[in-house]
Specification:
The complex is a heterodimer of chains A (183) and B (418).
Chain A (H helix, E strand, L loop, with lengths): L1 H12 L3 E7 L2 E6 L4 H10 L7 E9 L30 E9 L4 E9 L5 E3 L8 H12 L2 E3 L37
Parallel strand pairs in A: 2-5, 6-7
Antiparallel strand pairs in A: 1-2, 3-4, 4-5
Chain B lengths: L1 H17 L15 E6 L11 E7 L2 E8 L7 H7 L2 H9 L6 H16 L5 H29 L3 H22 L8 E2 L2 E2 L5 H25 L3 H7 L7 H7 L4 H4 L7 H4 L20 H25 L17 H6 L1 H13 L6 E8 L4 E8 L7 E5 L1 H7 L1 H5 L6 H9 L3 H5 L1
Antiparallel strand pairs in B: 1-2, 2-3, 4-5, 6-7, 7-8
Helix pairs in contact in B: 3-4, 4-5, 5-6, 5-12, 5-17, 6-7, 7-12, 12-17
The chains are: A alpha/beta (183), B mainly alpha (418).
Amino acid sequence: MKEKIEEKLRAAFGEDILAVAEHRGELTVGVKRDRIADVCRFLKEDPELSFNYLSDICGSDMLDFEDLSSRKSYLAVEHEHRPEPVPNEERFEVIYNMISLKNKSRVRLKVKVDGESPVCPSVISVYKSADWYERETYDMFGITFEGHPDMRRIYMPEEYEYYPLRKDFPLMGVPGSIPLPRK
Amino acid sequence: MSTSSENKREISQILKVLEDRDTNVVVDDPLENYMVLNMGPQHPATHGVLRLLVKLEGETVVDCIPEMGYLHRGYEKIAEASTYMEFIPHTDRLDYISPIANNVAIALAIEKLAGIEAPPRAQYIRVIGAELARISSHLMAIGAMAMDVGAMTVFLWAFREREKLYDVFDLLTGVRFTTSYTRIGGVAQDMTDETKAAIEKFIDEFPIHHHEIEKMLNRNRIFLDRTVGVGVINGETGLEVGLTGATLRASGVEHDIRTFSPYLVYDLLSFDVITENDGDCFARYMVRMREMLESVKIVRQALDKIPQGPIKADMPKKVLPKKERIYTKMEELIHDFVLVNDGINPEPGEIYSAIEGSKGELGFYIKSNGSGRPWRLKIRSPSFCNLQALPLIVKGQMISDVVAIIGSIDPIMGEADK
């Protein structure tokens, strides 16, 4: 199944499929940012693949991904692959998890988003369930989804200035950043 | 028409008060015949701190905006700062009605990332724990839903059964509520014969009490009037908006992670995936009722088939050693120290692992950069996904049906808000 997905995607999108990786038996397909909605539509509408259920969208901040200095390594585990530094143009990742009920298989798409002005096309025209997932990603990482009709925060207050899951946001939060309710 | 414009001003003032700083309600046309009702976050029928803004025309719901985040505790951020082991207790607080299922989900995800496999006995114990948690969760869902539509008795009966389950959990895990029962590579403690006997007693008696609830509700005129044909959603739309779990199966979609991608030992056990075709509140109730009996079936098979053997994988560099060995053996003491302080350092990479939790697909996406703490841990919580469909389901329904619909969706805000 995985070979078929890869083959079909490469045939349909060619250069726009940037990377295909497999880890622990799971397929991850890197897609060019502007083509993500087309790739989703292709996966959903192709009668053989029919990835008709979007299970999840999440963001990830890759700032200082290679930095292991904070790790107190008593075990001195040396892995085969060391993480590589990620340039600022690819600081954020948006990860899409799709399910095909027909084939009982999953696929994961990945899009790299610029760290300066994080913008990503919305897939809400393909999957309606992307609505809240994209809002959550926006709330946590500040990635704006173009074409989303209701780009509001979902957990944090609307006027909150920070994006909590970014790596440069401190774990303890910013004191005083959440205002008390008005009387 | 001075009165009309005065009226309008008055209404817009009321709307202003309702729209506090956390919420933007876009009311296209604030005419006199629409009313905006604020429901929650402190409302007994919202099962937690869900807040709904409901726009009404008479008693009919025209629009509904759920507001989330009142229980947001930032678990994904906490996960990035704690070792894999340290995060297991936090999962108890996600879906606090069925903590063992969450423990199993996170343990499976970490094991997949680090390439560990729990021994068979531990896998069977996990299945038993997760299924008992499902019964506990479904009892809560049915009891609360019945109470929302006026049947107090069922709520008390359901809680009596849940109390027995908590006694079982107490024997199995040592704790009643926040169990933190799984460990990386196994479970915390073995299932004793006493526990086994207690579980057997529970599953022998449970179908009798299950039948009592059925007798009380299945042909109850009031209950049927409040649930049949209320809050209908069809399977296609359900898939489109991301419904999951029992709520999706009530719309006729046969999707269950236990058969979709079998984990643990589910492929060795025989059970049915329950579906109903109507997609209304009553169908969701029926799916839960029938699923509880399937869970009993699974637990019974698991108790019959459970092998003897170790309850933790034998991988000293990844799995915590036994307590008594830590106190007596130097090597184990060192390993324990390193594992607790440093973590298990999985290879760089990313995985997504999901189980069929009691509310639906409970998944964890974990990315590792090779250190002892997850680089990114995303919780895919079923309650969040189910709530997304709520505005669609309640549209066109009566205001009094909103509570029945929320009850039938069974959201747990600890999980939805993370």
